[in-house]
Amino acid sequence: MDKVYKHQEVEKKWYDLWEKSGYFVPDKDPNLPAGKAGKKPFSVILPPPNANADLHMGHTMYTVEDIMVRYHRMKGDATLWLPGADHAGFETQYVFEKHLAKEGKSRFEYDRETLYQMIWDFVQKNRGNMEHQLRRLGFSLDWTRNTFTLDPKIVEIVYKTFKKLYDDGIVYRSERLVNYCTKDGTSFSDLEVNYVERNDPLYFMKYGPFTIATVRPETKFRDTALAVNPKDKRYKQHIGKTFDIQGLLGNVKMIIIPDESVDPKFGTGIMKVTPAHDPHDFELGKKFNLPVTPIIDFKGRMDFSWFMNKKDVPQKYLDRAKKYHGQKVLNARKMMVEDLKEDGLLLKTDEKYVHRIGVCYKCGAVIEPLPMKQWYIKIEQLADKAIDAIKKKKIKFVPKRFEKTAIRWLTNFHDWNISRQIVWGIRIPAWKCLECSKDGKEQWMVTSNEKPDKCTNCGGNNLQQDSDTFDTWFSSGQWPYATLLSREISNFKFPRKNSMIEFSGQAISNLKEKYVDSDFNYFYPTSVMETGYDILPW
After folding, report:
1. By C-alpha distance, which of 191, 194, 189, 190 is closest to 419?
2. For residue 260, is it within any domain?
3. What predicted TM-score, i.e. pTM, was given to this entire model?
């Protein structure tokens, strides 16, 4: 016997033996001589680690799954614990950009194809390290079914899911305000925005015959209305009237509109409406048909090009517009405050105003609400299906208290923006006709990734694929059925007679009938999903 216990050698020896003997493979497990046929299935899909770094302490929680999986094997159940790796979209591109920055480089130095290949190589190296570490930890995973979220068969299913959702009217394209990080250069879902308390000056400005209070004087140039509570006796007689408002670039006309959400006790009880830079104002804009005209661009800089091209404008105002143009928001704000003072439009300032602002969950930069055309998923009907499954105990939560948390999240969701302005990930299979775009129209064709032969509207073939990629959670949300369908199935198709809204019911039965010999037929739905409560909304 060795004087020193060499755990590395012992652990490797036994793990190699387990794996070679097929103990982790349900249809090869020597303790199940009949294979999986006739046995009770127990299946768990490993939440795939991000393939952009080594494992961290949190991944030791996989031990909980390992205990459950080994217990069910001991009971004689046909037990599947399916491993995988997540390409992790924005998360991975963010990590890779930090590596580039250490070398004094930037992603903007590379074209799309080159950058994608560089990240691919980076991910494959890290994926290998991560899988080695999972083995070193002794996790009893079925490595014969190991899957990557960018495996061709997985990507094929993701494309077909998107096409099916689009055909069923659940996916749509729309211009809305998005949560945009001007530092990372992409939009985010509502769940990826953190809110922090911050102290900012609250400026009280003269607005014609009124006084308004705002922390964002820089957006005043694109205000399109003033809103008041219709029950506020101070202002209700002005509703529907138009007033001349003296601004830093001259006079503008502004209408007074009613909005019951305006708090008469906040500030002066009158709110400026900027549809291009505030989600609530955007909805008001739709209601009252107000223009959506941004003053901040996607680089977080002020855009006054619309004013600088005007003719017959006093030189004073042109000089101001040129001074503001291209400035970062905070720099421009300081300039504007000084000009407001000069023109006698700044009445007072509350330096101790505390409010909540949205910041990027990754880099901490302030999130700018900006108008942008993106792909969205209608959430309400899908969420209703999930809530119904929870209430009927088809899904059980441990601890039970998180059942209420899940229902609360599902009840308060907005439609999901699934577009991301990044290179790394699954590119959206949608093509725009450039000929139709010349006439100011947007004609999009959605496929299962094959390029259309021609435009369905004008018949032209000048087509351009959307440069955006899917939010990584769009593909991750398909992981349980995509992994089980992709193993033995080629040319997968969804049943035509079922919409995606019905996917939790009859459509699953139809799929199982169609792919009777598949892992999907035997192991879906999976038995347990073990994860941290902090990512429950996903």
Report:
1. 189
2. yes
3. 0.89
pLDDT (tens digit per residue) in 87-101: 999 999 999 999 999
Give the CATH number for residue 24: 3.40.50.620
Residue 346 to residue 338: CA distance in whole angstroms? 9
Per-residue model confidence as pLDDT tens digits over 98-121: 999 999 999 989 999 999 999 999
pLDDT digits (tens, 9 = 90+) for 384-424: 998 999 999 988 988 898 998 889 888 888 899 999 999 99
Q: How many alpha carbons fall within 13 Å on the CB side of residue 456?
A: 11
Task: List, as one string, the DSSP characters of 265-291.
Answer: TSTTSEEEE-TTT-HHHHHHHHHHT--
Nearest to 95, CA basis, from 65, 50, 156, 137: 50
Which residues are bridge partners to 371 per DSSP? 177
Give residues with Cβ within 8 angstroms of 252, minimum separation 6. Answer: 223, 244, 245
Tell me, yes or no, whether 84 and 231 share the same domain. Answer: no
**Does residue 199 share a domain with residue 319?**
yes
Mean pLDDT of the region 156-182: 95
What three-state secondary structure class fits 460? coil
DSSP state of 494: -
With contact defined as beta carbons under 8 Å apart, do 213 and 287 qualify?
A: no
* Cα–Cα dist 107/260, whole Å: 46
Cβ–Cβ under 8 Å, residues 130 and 157: no
- Residue 272 forms part of a structural domain: yes
pLDDT digits (tens, 9 = 90+) for 261-282: 999 998 899 999 999 999 999 9
Number of helices followed by number of strands (H, E) in the chain: 16, 20
Q: What length does the chain have?
A: 538
What are the C-alpha distances in Å from 114 to residues 117, 123, 468?
A: 5, 14, 16
Residues 40, 91, single domain; the answer is yes
Half-sphere exposure of 199 (CA within 13 A, CB side): 3
Q: Which two tokens stand for residue 95?
A: 């990590």
The average confidence (pLDDT) of the chain is: 90
